[in-house]
Amino acid sequence: MKESPLEATATQQTKNIFLANMSHEIRTPMNAILGYSQILLRDKDLKPEHKKALEIILKSSDNLLEVINDMLFLTKAESEPPLINLIDFDLTSLLTDLNILFQNSCSSKSLSWDFKNFKNPFFVNADAFKIRQVLTKLIDNVIKHTDTGQIFFGVEKRENDWVEFTIKDTETGIPSKDYDSIFKTFGQGTQRVQKGSAGLGLAISQNLAKLMGGDISVDSPVEGGSVIALRLPLTQAKSKKPAEQNKKVIHLKNEYKAKALVVDDVKEDRELLSKLLESIGITVAQAENGEVSVEKYTQIKPDIIFMNIRMPIMDGFDAIDSIKENFPERELKIVVVSGSVLKKEQERFLSLGCKDIILKPFREEQIFSCIQRLLEVEFEYDRNDVNDRSNTTIDFSKVNISESIIDEIKKAVELNNLTGLECCLNLINPRNKDEENLLNKLVELMTSYDMEGINNQMDKLANAS
Q: Which of 415 and 388 is assigned the larger pLDDT?
C-alpha cells in the first residue's frame, strides 16, 4: 500500500533524525579501529605477517569509513540537498594545494604526475569546499585505478565564465557501454569491479557538480586511457582578497583583543576548539552545557560564542534564548558548531540571530574567517614559502618541543584527526631555524595527509633526544 503524504513526511523525518544521529556516532568505533591499528604498527618487534595483517585492517577501515560517509551524504541528499556556500577565493591557490597532495599520492605508487595550473591568481565566487571535494574524489578515483604510467590534472578557462578541469590517465579505459552506469550510485564499470571500487565517488561527484550548475563527462577508449572533465560556471569575484588571505594565520595583530566562549558537552571537542582559539591569542572560557554557558556569558561578556546544539541539561536553542532574554541590549555574535545540523535546525538558529553555522569536523580557516568577519579583527600571517620546505634539513638535536605537544600530535595522528593535528601544530612556537624547519615540514606532511610521514618525523625527534 502506498504511503500517504503525511506518512511519507513522517518517514522522511525519522530517516533524517537517524542520519543526524548516525553522523555523530559513526566515527567513534571507526576511530578506535584506525587508532589501535596504527599503535600496533609502530611496534618494531612486530612479525612481518602480523604487520601485513594490520596494514590490511588499516586500509580496509579507511575504505569503510569513506564508504559510510559517502552513503550518508547520498541518502541525506535525496531529501535535503547540501547548501551552497559562496565565498570569494583564489582558485589557483586551491589547485596548488591539491597538486601537493596528489603529487605525493602518485609518488607512492610510482606514477608520473603532470599538473597544469593558472599562471596568476584567479579569484572566483563559488563554493570552495565543494569544488575541492569533487576534485579530490575524481583524482582519488583515477589514482586508485591506475597502476602504471602517468596522470595529468589541468584547468582551463572557457567562454562565459565556465572553467574546465581535466584529469587524464594512461590505464586501460572504460567501455563506452559503462559510461552511464559509473555515475549512478553503486554503479561500476566492468573494469572498475575488478579493482574493488564501491561505486560511490563518481556518483557523489556528479551530484555535487550538478548542484553547482556544472557537469562531469568521461571519454575513455578502452586502449587509450580515460579523460574525465569537470565543467563548472565560476563567476569571477567582485573584489580580490589580498594574497595574505591564503596564508596560514599565526596570531591576532597586537592591537586586537578578543574573548570567546566555547560551549560543547564533548570535552575533547570543546578543548580542541579552545586550544585553536588560544593559539592565535584569543582569551577562551568553556562551558559543558547551555546552562553553564548562560552563567559564563554573564561573567565574562564574550565577544563571540561558539555553540554546540545537542547538549544535556540545556541545549543550544534554549541557551541562546536565555542569553538573548538576559542581555537584550547586546548584539550577540553566536556561531553554531555541530556534528550534524538538520535544515529545520539551521533555519531556527538563523531566525534566532546566529551569525554562522559551521559543521564538524571544521577546518581552521573556517573558524578564522568567521572570527575575522564577525569581530572585524586582523591577523598576522605566516609568510614562509611552502614550496621551499621539502628541501630543508633539520638538526633534531636542536629541536625542543614539549612532551605534551608531542603526545597530542601522536594521538591526533593515531586517530587521523586533522583538526586536532592542526591545533597541535599551531601550539608550536619555533625558537630557532631547526624548529621552524620541522614545523614547516609537519605542515607540509599534514597538507598531503601523510600521517606515516609525521610519525617518521616524531620518531627522528625521539631518537635524537
A: 415
Q: Is 195 exposed, middle or buried (0-12, 13-18, 19+ CB in 10 A)?
A: middle
Alpha helices in 109-239 (DSSP H): 128-144, 190-193, 201-211
Who has greater pLDDT, 414 or 431?
431
Parallel/antiparallel/unpaired status of strands 259-263 and 304-307? parallel
Q: Which amino acid is at 196?
A: G
DSSP 338-350: ES---HHHHHHHH
Q: Can you read off the three cell numbers belonging to residue 444?
A: 607540509
| Helices 267-279, 418-426: inter-axial angle, 10-degree rounding | 40
Beta-sheet pairing, 123-126 with 112-116: unpaired
Give 14-57 pLDDT, tens digit per residue: 666 666 566 556 655 665 576 567 667 767 688 877 887 887 78
Q: What DSSP designation does 368 have?
A: H
Q: What is the largest CA-CA distance in the chain?
A: 74
Measure CA 401 to chain center: 26
User: In terms of pLDDT, which residue wins out, 408 or 24?
Assistant: 408
Tell me the pLDDT tens digit for each residue of 284-319: 999 998 899 999 999 999 999 998 888 888 888 898
Beta-carbon contacts of residue 327 (< 8 Å; ≥ 6 apart):
297
Q: Is 450 left (phi over 0), alpha (psi -120 to 50) or beta?
A: beta
Strand blocks (E) in 234-278: 235-236, 249-252, 259-263
